[in-house]
Amino acid sequence: MITAVLTLLAPALSVAMLVLTLILAKGDICPGQRGRIHKLLPAIGILWLAIASLKIEAFLVVFALFYFYSKVQTGKTREKGPFWALHLANGMGMTFSVILIAQQPNLAQSMSLASAGLLLGAAFAHLLLTMAKTRLQAFHRILPVSGVVFAMLLALSFVFNAYQWEPEVVANYTPAVIISLLMLMAGIVIWSWHIIRHRAPAKGQLAVAFLSLLVTNIGLLQLYWLA
Questions:
Q1: pLDDT one-digit tens code per residue, 90-149
Q2: How many Cβ atoms from other residues are within 10 Å of residue 157's Cβ?
Q3: d(Cα 61, Cα 6) in Å, to the nearest integer?
Q4: Largest Cα–Cα distance of the chain, in whole Å?
Q5: CA–CA distance, 165 with 160 (Å, rounded to integer)
Q6: Alpha carbon of 219 to those of 50, 215, 224: distances in Å?
Q7: What CATH architecture applies to the domain 2-226?
Q8: 22-43 burial, b for 16+ CB within 10 Å, e for fewer?
């Protein structure tokens, strides 16, 4: 299970880092919002440190990310800091994730891991932006809507993968598949709940949605490995 979590986290963190980098570089944010986003970087670095237990190359991302963090302020600031270090962390994170995706046993599993990474990355980025109290309202709609698209891609890639299973494997794992797909739908509904209710997203709501989607994808990934 730990291996499945770390495998999913790598592409998810890469996507989340790209979203945060885009906002730091191009977003119309006040000095307070910029500082609050900077405060989130150590948490991302620690998660990459955990991934390094899976593959040592992840340490490169950790070093670049913490170097950038060491050069920026976490209070109110307009200073963008050494963006080359953040771009380096993004580049190495994406390279690490692409290699991990390419190393999957077959094309269907590679597609599923890529889709899961996009889905979880968008959900995690949305949670981080809400924790940072950003006022970029467009992202509160763009990210959940993109999540719906990524969830559809994940479901399609899973069907493509399951189509190659032997009949006895399908019979054995059908209940687990149904539960996982129901949890996927529940996670998307929870994530999009603020849009349905026309309210601002809450941290608790997004945390539950992210954890639900993470558990769902852990189950699906383990099904791939078992089958």
A1: 999 999 999 999 988 878 788 888 999 999 999 999 999 999 888 778 888 899 999 999
A2: 21
A3: 14
A4: 60
A5: 10
A6: 20, 6, 9
A7: Up-down Bundle (1.20)
A8: ebbeebebeeebbbbbbebbee
